[in-house]
Amino acid sequence: MPYVVGYPRIGEKRELKFALEKYWRGETSLNELEEVAKELRARHWNYQKEAGIEYISSNDFSYYDQMIDMIVMLGAEPQEYKDLEGIDRYFVMARGDQNHKALPMTKWFNTNYHYFVPQLRKDMEFALNLQKPLNEFKEAKALGIETKVNLIGPVTFLSLSRTIDGSDPLDLLPRVLPIYKEAMEGLKEAGVKMVQFDEPALVKDPTQKQLEAIKQAYKVIPTKGIESYIVTYFEHANEVVEQLIDTPISGIGLDFVHGPKNIQSVEEIAKSGKKLIAGVVDGRNIWVSDIDKKVQFLQELPIEKDQVIVSTSCSLLHVPYTLAYEKKLDSNIKSWLAFTNEKLAELRLIDKLYRGKEIGEDRELLEANKAANETRKSSLQIHNKAVQERLANLKPEEKERQMRGEERLPLQREILGYPMLPTTTIGSFPQTSEVRKLRRDYKEGKISQEEYKAKIKEMIRYCVNVQEDIGLDVLVHGEFERNDMVEYFGQMLSGVAFSENGWVQSYGSRCVKPPIIYGDVSRPAPMTVEWITYAQSLTDKPMKGMLTGPVTMLNWSFVRDDLDRELVYKQMALAIADEVRDLQDAGIKVIQVDEAAFKEGYPLRSENRNEYERVAVESFKISTAPARPKTQIHTHMCYSDFNDIMPTIDAMDADVISIETARNGNRLLEAFRNYHYKKEVGAGVYDIHSPRIPSKEELIAQIEDRLKVFPARLLWINPDCGLKTRRWEEVIPALTNMVEATKDVRSRIVKL
Ligand code: GLN
Ligand code: ZN
Fold first, then answer.
1. Where in the sequence numbering do the catalytic residues fall?
2. Cβ of residue 722 lying under 6 Å from some atom of ligand 1
3. Rounded-to-integer distance, Cα 500 and Cα 486, Å
């Protein structure tokens, strides 16, 4: 009786993405969008049913984000959206419009999924809106599928929220509990038998207050006639188990893949008589399970079999749908992989073997699984001696730059000659449908390489001209040749494979196709030099070369689990170092090594942080070590809070760092106020996730806010992040306002 914590929703062909985007462009009606959503839900329920999954979820679907769904369910929409209603309000909270900012967005734990942060107030009134969970439950029921209803639990919901008045969101628990209770009554009335409460927040070093909150919550919420299951994931949750053990809940979900210490809680659960939802199939990675090992693991757990429910480690939201469309993937590599639907089969098989049932037709699957695990250990496709030896014998100058940052910067300023408050962008410019079509045509062989290159160069020329006209100081080529900042590089590296259809939702309608790092990594040939040098040839202004850093490459990839992760990071770092050297040799004087996902790889438990930071910093430094003192290294980070890692950011030793700042209401500035940072910083002056065009006045205010924290000599002016999701009609006026605002502030500083 296998259990799936949650199923992805974007569709195996990204149907939801395309339907959403059409709807937003006004090309289809709400009705048509709803039809697509309904079809997807039905399909996903049926897949799970056919695969023999017993515990199937409803309400794991979302038009945009499950946290926004919870905001709606709890009636927690912020005041500023109250002029709107229904689906319009929903999408404006997610995406913003001319009159509204979007809700802030941030990482869902250490995944590459992003959720929207509820904005609460200490005196707010919640009100239940149960429509969505109810409808989806009934919809499944009409198809003959009895689902559990997934809700984000109150402690996690509040822990992931912010308040606009600085109060602790957790203080709102007494106000939300009655709403959850009322929800239970409503669900019960509709015939729901089981509710899953996701409570992953407490795997991150839970506070005493959170622990008390979870106990209080689940004394109140469970309701006769419905079973309440509390699931945790991504780390161990021993403290949570302790709190829940004498509450009236029916079962607890533990992630044994990413939280090995969870084993320590099994006996306690066994004694309590509650069910253990045993997360053994990895919901975060794509390697085939070693079925025999998983079965053995389950058998050794100190708990009766009838108390155990075999489960995924977390929602399958974080892995692609199916290998069924992978026609080009090397057959060996493919045999080492399991996406969502293949994981369903693994679950079924593990469950059967664990319970000593006939495996019947699954015999073949078991044989294939054994073979895959064998070949993976010995395959020559994986092991590359040259890469291993190079890494084992690094010289000091290959590990880090030799001159200190504060000494390098004056040399760079002189060579590059940029003014005070230099303006730049983060790299990408609009990815129009024209650009995407061009890349697609090239990929499908419809146009020649010559034609492709000529067209890309035309776009680069346009982009450089636009930036010159606007008057930016350090230019970029625009990244038109890139579909995605990680995929683009992954495709040119050895040891990295690509699926054709392995899409994973990043946020809303955005998906990424993470590279699959299956073997030792190296860079056979230059990856960006032709584009960047072409762009540089068009202008006298410095052209910033644009690379993705080793930490981000791994954090946004599916990483092999058969080699120490530190070695994989450093192999990647060497591959990027080769590119830095080549760009520099080709005359490029500014190189940005993006580490957008630096923070996201952080371990959830503080006990593991130092080790992560050490490896991440060492890897970044290896990747930039070839840069001479006069070559200016930029890095860029976004999506997360950086307030607590200033010393680590400093240790990365980049000359200039640009960080997403505006999107989170300038909270980041606080971190710099308290930290004596001596290198240069671009604290993003406007959020790029919304089509809203910031006015010159707003931008002046933003720059002035930053000047209260940074000396003018160290401050760069740039948007929060790359502009690829925006349109030229938005980008040109926004950047023009940014440059005008900068000039205005500059002129006043100079006068002072
Ligand atoms: N250089 C990349 C871009 O501008 C950085 C993207 C990111 O930080 N997510 O698109
Ligand atoms: Zn960014």
1. 689
2. yes
3. 15
C-alpha 599 to ligand 1 mean position (Å)? 15
CB-CB contact of 605 with 202 (8 Å)? no
**C-alpha to C-alpha distance for 8 and 11, rounded to whole angstroms:** 7
CATH number at 406-751: 3.20.20.210
The arithmetic mean of pLDDT across residues 48-60, rounded, is 98
Report the alpha-carbon distance of residue 127 to residue 125 in Å, rounded: 7
Ligand 1 contacts CB of residue 426 (under 6 A): yes
Hey, do 47-378 and 406-751 end up sharing a CATH topology, with the first three levels equal? yes
Q: What is the pLDDT of residues 305-321, one digit of tens each?
A: 999 999 999 999 999 99
Please state which CATH number belongs to domain 47-378: 3.20.20.210
pLDDT above 60 (res 636): yes
- Domain borders along the chain are 7-46, 47-378, 406-751
735 exposure class (CB count in 10 Å sphere: 0-12, 13-18, 19+): buried
Q: Is the CB of 638 under 6 A from ligand 1?
A: yes
Please indicate whether residue 425, judged by its CB atom, sits closer than 6 Å to ligand 1. Answer: no
Q: What's the CA-to-centroid distance between 677 and ligand 2, angstroms? A: 20
Q: Atom 9 (ligand 1): residue with closest C-alpha?
A: 596
Report pLDDT digits (tens) over 442-482. Answer: 999 999 999 999 999 999 999 999 999 999 999 999 999 99
Ligand of minimum distance to the alpha carbon of 592: 1
CA of 428 to the centre of ligand 2 (A): 10
The number of angstroms, rounded, from the C-alpha of 215 to the middle of its chain's C-alpha atoms is: 30
Determine if ligand 1 sits within 6 Å of the CB of residue 596.
yes
Residues with CB under 5 A from ligand 2 (ion): 596, 638, 721
Nearest Cα neighbor of 544 from 471, 465, 475, 631 is 475
Model pLDDT for residues 102-119, shown as the tens digit of each residue: 999 988 998 989 999 999
Per-residue tokens: 28: 């289809």
C-alpha distances (whole Å) from 254 to each of 107, 156, 257, 588, 739 are 21, 16, 9, 50, 51
Mean pLDDT of 114-137: 97
637 close to ligand 1 (CB < 6 Angstrom): no
Ligand at minimal distance from the CA of 426 is 1
| Confidence (pTM) | 0.91
How many whole angstroms separate alpha carbon 122 and alpha carbon 110?
A: 28
Cα of 484 vs centre of ligand 1, distance in Å, is: 9
Task: Report the chain's mean pLDDT, rounded to a whole number.
Answer: 96
- Report residue 290: phi and psi, to 5°: -90, 95
Residues 6+ apart with CB under 8 A from 273: 307
Residue to mutate (ligand 1; options 552, 576, 636; most atoms within 8 A of CB): 636
Q: How many CB atoms lie within 10 A of CB 607?
A: 10
Q: How many angstroms separate the CA atoms of 687 and 102, rounded? A: 10
